[in-house]
Automatic annotation (TrEMBL), chain A:
Topology in membrane: Peripheral membrane protein
One Pfam family, short name: Alpha_adaptin_C
Family: Belongs to the adaptor complexes large subunit family.
Record's protein name: AP-2 complex subunit alpha
Organism: Scleropages formosus (Asian bonytongue)
Clathrin adaptor alpha/beta/gamma-adaptin appendage Ig-like subdomain domain residues: 730-844
GO biological process, one term: clathrin-dependent endocytosis
Subcellular location: Cell membrane; Membrane, Coated pit
Gene3D superfamilies with a match to the protein in the record: 2.60.40.1230, Leucine-rich Repeat Variant, TATA-Binding Protein
Function of the protein: Component of the adaptor protein complex 2 (AP-2). Adaptor protein complexes function in protein transport via transport vesicles in different membrane traffic pathways. Adaptor protein complexes are vesicle coat components and appear to be involved in cargo selection and vesicle formation. AP-2 is involved in clathrin-dependent endocytosis in which cargo proteins are incorporated into vesicles surrounded by clathrin (clathrin-coated vesicles, CCVs) which are destined for fusion with the early endosome.
UniProtKB/TrEMBL annotation, chain B:
A Gene Ontology term for the protein's cellular component: plasma membrane
Key word Transcription present: no
Molecular-function annotations in GO: lipid binding
Positions contributing to a 1,2-diacyl-sn-glycero-3-phospho-(1D-myo-inositol-3,4,5-trisphosphate) binding: K340, K342, K344, K353, K355
Topological category with respect to the lipid bilayer: Peripheral membrane protein
UniProt-recorded name of the protein: Adaptor related protein complex 2 subunit mu 1a
Family: Belongs to the adaptor complexes medium subunit family.
Organism of derivation: Scleropages formosus (Asian bonytongue)
Length: 963, 434
């Protein structure tokens, strides 16, 4: 590089800058700048040509003025002229000006590109570097278009200087990041990989950044880099600190390069070649060994560099997750850092350990540090470190230490920072549920949680308690007792009142025997909280009261008195008033039998993914254990808690709804039917929480099914001419509720119920924007002769206005006249911000919805099976399994189908047989099913027999998609 | 209620800091510096609200005066106080500059203690203040003097002490006006108003009672009713309509309200008797006729004619016409008939100065401006041509009709008082679009 001689310094520039610095006020500065600008303008305008030196000086001044924050609208031409100078300093200033000031649109771009091209071709390494730096600094699309082809050539050319290669690699990286489509892979790619073997360490460091970025997009093309990287790494790691001279940083050989190499290796799975792998393991071991050596220098830079490599190595070990020995060593190393003086190291150690905890090899090793981590949670001064500690505790929790960890987290919660409380609450709730061995502990924990951090307990948490208490009859008594005791505190949180109201309303009778908690005492306790609660809670309490009337007839008079008082029956809130009026009427008119039926105990909830887990996923705190891990954990823990028999992913399918559930949830009948979409309908919310009203959980609850999105579409869904939006209607074959459609504007939720040949479908149109939709219409049409098979009529037209964020409900009455195969179309039109939106969807209406399950014995079944032996009555398919062949999952799916699952009928216990009758208006079609899974071959054989050939065929097609 | 008062130099260093209320913390000082003095963009609003604290500032040359409060105060009151504070400081040590403030900082703290009490403005009359805050060090005062100061400061006439004696009873009256104008290129008046002040310097003995009369339209019309129609018509021409006016505290407002007569016992020395504003029938002393022609992309021809529009016997002074030039000017040639003209690059303007000019005259300048072609498509915004001048009459048409002095206790009458009246009209913002 030509040295800048002393005489080359620009005196005028120095004077100008010192003038500016000496200005007393802003006004003076502006005056000085205006004067200078006028001077430069007159110089540039002048007739006589300027020499290179003064041009450089003025361009420099302009640049300085621009950097002070003033607009510069001239001088570009002079700067471009400087590019063609042969002097380094002039060229440099020209490039500097251009990379700072030139925007892409100007017509000068052509001239600039030309100058850059000349420099790239000049073979002068300094000029080439300048040009490359300019391209990288501007990095615009135009630049990429002009030079994306040229730079790879320079990069791999044999005769390019090292410094130019370095610049070229970084320049290419920049262009690739801004416009990846313009940088085309070619034969240079393989040669780029070989730059890893370059003599010059600078080139390797630059090239590896490029390779890492490229290989993230096209891992296959760069596969070969793994072995090269490993050998390079081993050479660095094993070298003495003096070998690398310039690239040794405080006694650590090439720390940046090592980190980058380790990061590159993290893009790939462990090398398959044994030798390479052995070498890599050796490297990693050496790195871990080096961490144990006494430091060669007391300087902080030395330990920083060393630790950087170490942490990258540990992430690589975690990434591979295959070397138990290394994982345990890494864990021990991190354990040492946990007690390090340096806060940053402790933070990093906690963070890395969090990922280590999810590996099966190191989980146990991580657990040994529990005391340290708990200590960190309590004593760390930095909140972010405490947060990591909480994450790690969550990650390392399992059945053996759950009680301890949950207790620690609960006690910490009282003093925790507000910012992390909600997350902590969710974590405690999940851990308590996941690892609960006995339910009284679980109930205690959650009630404690509500007591300590009631404000941070989200709805999901207490929904979940209620779900579990209702599903497990052995805890109900205990729960009622505990809740009763908890409510006796003078001040309790509203969430506690909610749980209390719900549980006492359902199971108050279990503790009524004790005179201290006699029905009246219970009622008075609840009612004492009533006036302090918000409207939704009051509504819930009113429902609890009516349940009390059913449970304890002796309280009837008292409760009626309460309902009758003006503050209830004339409440200004419609929801409360309606409940009060209806409950009062119900309690005075209905006979005890009717009352008992209407107010029957809630049926067990269908098992579903914990809503809390879904919530945590949504929050997705940094460092939280990855979602799949949680699922895994859930599968282990959930089963034992809730009884394997009920478990299944088809969460929202309600198997044979009992009358009371129907009354409270699906039929829009009094007393709470009108609340189906109100915020106050907690009973309904708990019940139908997976439905479209709670879109988040509605999407998440079929985590199992969502993997089907990539499955091939239905064979018979020949798109009608209007071209409906394709959707996976088969998702709804085995379930009745869920999200039918969702885009940026609109979400359509669906909830449906069927009885015999009749059905009712609730469509919920949710406006996801903040702007109203106008001219909203939705029509249902039956293409072709479908009309003669099925009737689908909306009860009333929808409201043409949908406010931003609002939800609209539409009810469709469905009648099945005879069997059908196609589905009706739903057409939605509306205007959003002036643009007409048109949407056509297939309704998820399939023949199996009209199944009536039929129970029969083995003999009966095979007798009928034989009766339906005509070849056209049978439809059979043999197909490969698309999803898990878990027995429970299959069972749940078949139940969702609507047929009766017959146990102990088939001689082979692996097989499933089902029976049902399709109810249509015209006729009833008996239907028998047999599913024979073959676990080894991952295949199924599905046989369907029915009295009508079209039905067998159709059902067979539908079901083949499901397994 | 002012919470605190800070004075900064141009660098933002605090020269004077006086906090009156607890709600203003030390960080308020820095907040103003960071957000206003050192702000990236120039702060134009005199009121700035930072973190629920209001900062009211005025700038005198390089000095910033900022009043700070957390309460919802009357902003006009605060500014009135700040201006008064400037007047007081000027009266004590002349020009407000960093050096003067540093040299007098004990005095300034003493003044601040006196004129602002717990954030409430107190007597800020220079004459009164000077009786007990002096620059000559501590002069031990006798008991009588002290009690006299007390009775005077707390008494009915706080602005004048008793027992003043002059050999020559003399009084000076200045009518100072500034005329503001915005005119279209075609010569149409878009907006015009005059804001004026009557400043008086009195050297009178005893406790004289004064009465001031001017050609206020309401007064003249009232008198006209009593007199002949001819008289009313004659005086109606010369009377002026005053839009609004404010008086010094010595003026008896009740009397002004009932009779519209201005009577008062004047303070000793210099003070501002009244301030007023008029918008009708303004005499515009100069007319500017611009002519701008763009010749291609690189040249601009400008011709400006000014015409003086007052009695030929009067002379205007300190005339300065400022013609803005485009931002990409690379060279200027100017030719003018009278005075001197120069292109000032630092201000992006041609400045044309004329020392003196009589009424009913005309003068002209023409300039050729060379432009540097830029790739910027933005058009030049053409800022208006502005003008400065000074004329020896009141552009509003205000005339002093009389100033009578009565001193019943001492033996001098109105005729013995020597009275001087002077009119000065200056340009305020006097602009013509081009």
């Amino acid at each position: 590089m030509p040295a800048v001689s002393k005489g080359d310094g620009m005196r005028g520039l120095a004077v100008f800058i010192s003038d500016i610095r000496n200005c007393k006020s802003k006004e003076a500065e502006i005056k000085r700048i205006n004067k200078e600008l006028a001077n430069i303008r007159s110089k540039f305008k002048g007739d006589k040509a300027l020499d290179g030196y003064s041009k450089k000086k003025y361009v420099c001044k302009l640049l300085f003025i621009f950097l002070l924050g003033h607009d510069i609208d001239f001088g570009h031409m002079e700067a471009v002229n400087l590019l063609s100078s042969n002097k380094y300093t002039e060229k440099q200033i020209g490039y500097l000006f251009i990379s700072v000031l030139v925007n892409s649109n100007s017509e000068l771009i052509r001239l600039i590109n030309n100058a850059i091209k000349n420099d790239l071709a000049s073979r002068n390494p300094t000029f080439m570097c300048l040009a490359l730096h300019c391209i990288a600094n501007v990095g615009s699309r135009e630049m990429a278009e002009a030079f994306a082809g040229e730079i790879p050539r320079i990069l791999v050319a044999g005769d390019t200087m090292d410094s130019v290669k370095q610049s070229a690699a970084l320049c290419l990286l920049r262009l690739y990041k801004t416009s990846p489509d313009l940088v085309l892979m070619g034969e240079w790619t393989s040669r780029v990989v070989h730059l890893l073997n370059d003599q010059h360490m600078g080139v390797v460091t630059a090239a590896i950044s490029l390779i890492t970025c490229l290989s993230q997009k096209n891992p296959d093309e760069f596969k070969t880099c793994v072995s090269l990287a490993v050998s390079r790494l081993s050479r660095i790691v094993s070298s003495a600190s003096t070998d690398l001279q310039d690239y040794t940083y405080y006694f650590v050989p090439a720390p940046w390069l090592s980190c980058k190499l380790l990061r590159l290796l993290q893009c790939y799975p462990p090398p398959e070649d044994g030798a390479v792998k052995g070498r890599l393991v050796e490297c990693l071991e050496t790195i871990l060994n080096k961490a144990q050596e006494p430091p060669k220098s007391k300087k902080v830079q030395h330990s920083n560099a060393k630790n950087a490599i170490l942490f990258e190595a540990i992430s690589l070990i975690i990434h591979y997750d295959s070397e138990p020995n290394l994982l345990v060593r890494a864990c021990n190393q991190l354990g040492q850092f946990l007690q390090h003086r340096e806060t940053n190291l402790r933070y990093l150690a906690l963070e890395s350990m969090c990922t280590l905890a999810s590996s099966e090899f190191s989980h146990e090793a991580v657990k040994t540090h529990i005391e340290t981590v708990i200590n960190a949670l309590k004593t760390e001064r930095d909140v972010s470190v405490r947060q990591r500690a909480a994450d790690l505790l969550y990650a390392m929790c399992d059945r053996s230490n759950a009680k301890q960890i949950v207790a620690e987290m609960l006690s910490y919660l009282e003093t925790a920072d507000y910012s992390i409380r909600e997350e902590m609450v969710l974590k405690v709730a999940i851990l308590a549920e996941k690892y609960a061995v006995d339910y009284s502990w679980y109930v205690d924990t959650i009630l404690n949680l509500i007591r300590i951090a009631g404000d941070y307990v989200s709805e999901e948490v207490w929904y979940r308690v209620i779900q579990i208490v209702i599903n497990r009859d052995d805890v109900q008594g205990y729960a009622a007792k505990t809740v009763f005791e908890a409510l006796q505190a003078p001040a309790c949180h509203e969430n506690m009142v909610k749980v209390g109201g719900y549980i006492l309303g359902e199971f108050g009778n279990l503790i009524a025997g004790d005179p201290r908690s006699s029905p009246l005492v219970q009622f008075n306790l609840l009612h004492s909280k009533f006036h302090l609660c918000s409207v939704p809670t009051r509504a819930l309490l009113l429902s609890a009261y009516i349940k009390f009337i059913n449970l304890f007839p002796e309280t009837k008079a008292t409760i009626q008195e309460v309902l009758r008082c003006d503050s209830q029956i004339r409440n200004s809130d419609v929801e409360l008033q309606q409940r009060a009026v209806e409950y009062l009427k119900l309690s005075s008119i209905a006979s005890t039998d009717v009352l008992a039926t209407v107010l029957e105990e809630m049926p067990p909830f269908p098992e579903r993914e914990s809503s809390i887990l879904a919530k945590l996923k949504k929050k997705k705190g940094p460092g939280a254990v990855s979602v799949s891990d949680l699922d895994e954990g859930k599968r282990d823990g959930g089963g034992e808690l809730n009884g394997a028999g009920e478990r299944g992913p088809e969460s929202s399918v309600v198997s044979t709804p009992s009358p009371s559930a129907d009354l409270l949830g699906l039929r829009s009948a009094p007393p709470v039917g009108s609340a189906a979409q109100g915020a106050g309908s907690l009973l309904v919310d708990v019940f139908s929480e997976a439905g479209p009203l709670a879109p988040a959980s509605g999407v998440n609850d079929d985590g199992f099914l969502s993997s089907e999105d990539s499955a091939p579409p239905l064979p018979e869904s020949d798109d009608p001419p209007c071209g409906p939006v394709p959707f996976q209607s088969f998702r709804f074959v085995c379930k009745n509720n869920g999200v039918l459609f969702e885009n940026q504007l609109l979400q359509i939720g669906i909830k449906s119920e069927y009885r015999q040949n009749l059905g009712r479908m609730y469509l919920f149109y949710g406006n996801k924007t903040s702007v109203q939709f106008v001219n909203f219409t939705s029509t249902v049409s039956c293409p072709g002769d479908l009309q003669s098979h099925i009737l689908c009529t909306p009860t009333k037209p929808v409201d043409p206005l949908v406010e931003g964020g609002a939800q609209l409900q539409q009810v469709l009455n469905i009648e099945c006249l005879s069997d059908f195969s196609d589905a009706p179309l739903l057409n939605i039109r509306f205007r959003y911000g002036g643009a007409l939106q048109n949407l056509t969807l297939k309704l998820p209406l399939t023949i199996n919805k009209f199944f009536q399950p039929t129970e029969m014995g083995s003999q009966d079944f095979f007798q009928r099976w034989k009766q339906l032996s005509l070849p056209q009555q049978e439809a059979q398919k043999i197909f490969k399994a698309n999803h898990s062949m878990d027995k429970e999952v299959l069972k749940a799916k078949l139940l969702g189908l609507g047929m009766a699952l017959l146990e102990n009928v088939d001689p082979n216990p692996e097989n499933f047989v089902c029976a049902g009758v399709v109810q249509t208006k015209a006729q009833q079609v008996g239907c028998l099913l047999r599913l024979e899974p073959n676990i080894q071959a991952q295949m199924y054989r599905l046989t369907l027999r029915s009295s009508k050939d079209t039905v067998s065929k159709r059902l067979c097609d539908l079901l083949a998609e499901q397994f | 209620m002012i919470g605190g008062l800070f004075i900064y130099n141009h660098k933002g260093e605090v020269l004077i800091s006086r906090v009156y209320r607890d709600d203003i913390g030390r960080n308020a000082v820095d907040a103003f510096r960071v957000n206003v003095i050192h702000a990236r963009q120039q702060v134009r609003s005199p009121v700035t609200n930072i973190a629920r604290t209001s900062f009211f500032h005025v700038k005198r040359s390089n000095i910033w005066l900022a009043a700070v409060t957390k309460q919802n105060v009357n902003a006009a009151m605060v500014f009135e106080f700040l201006y008064k504070m400037c007047d007081v400081m000027t009266a004590y040590f002349g020009k407000i500059s960093e050096e003067n403030i540093k040299n007098n900082f004990v005095l300034i703290y003493e003044l601040l203690d006196e004129i602002l009490d717990f954030g409430y403005p107190q007597n800020s009359e220079t004459g009164a203040l000077k009786t007990f805050i002096t620059q000559q060090g501590i002069k031990s005062q006798t008991k009588e003097e002290q009690s006299q100061i007390t009775s005077q400061v707390t008494g009915q006439i706080g602005w004048r002490r008793e027992g003043i004696k002059y050999r020559r009873n003399e009084l000076f009256l200045d009518v100072l006006e500034s005329v503001n104008l915005l005119m279209s290129p075609q010569g149409q008046v878009l907006s015009a108003h005059v804001s004026g002040r009557v400043v008086m310097k009195s050297y009178l003995s005893g406790m004289p009672e004064c009465k001031f009369g001017m050609n206020d339209k309401i007064v003249i019309d009232k008198q006209g009713k009593g007199g002949t129609a001819d008289d009313a018509g004659k005086s109606g021409k010369q009377s002026i309509a005053i839009d609004d006016c404010t008086f010094h505290q010595c003026v008896r407002l009740s009397k002004f309200d009932s009779e519209r007569s201005i009577s008062f016992i004047p303070p000793d020395g210099e003070y501002e008797l009244m301030r007023y504003r008029t918008t009708k029938d303004i005499i515009l002393p100069f007319r500017v006729i611009p002519l701008v022609r763009e010749v291609g992309r690189t040249k601009l021809e400008v011709k400006v004619v000014i015409k003086s529009n007052f009695k030929p016997s009067l002379l205007a002074q300190k005339i300065e016409v400022r013609i803005p030039t485009p931002l990409n000017t690379s060279g200027v040639q100017v030719i003018c008939m009278k005075g001197k003209a120069k292109y000032k690059a630092s201000e992006n303007a041609i400045v044309w100065k004329i020392k003196r000019m009589a009424g009913m005259k005309e003068s002209q300048i023409s300039a050729e401006i060379e432009l540097l072609p830029t790739n910027d498509k933005k058009k030049w915004a053409r800022p208006p041509i502005s003008m400065n001048f000074e004329v020896p009459f009141a552009p509003s048409g205000l005339k002093v009709r009389y100033l009578k002095v009565f001193e019943p206790k001492l033996n001098y009458s109105d005729h013995d008082v020597i009275k001087w009246v002077r009119y000065i009209g200056r340009s305020g913002i006097y602009e013509t679009r081009c």
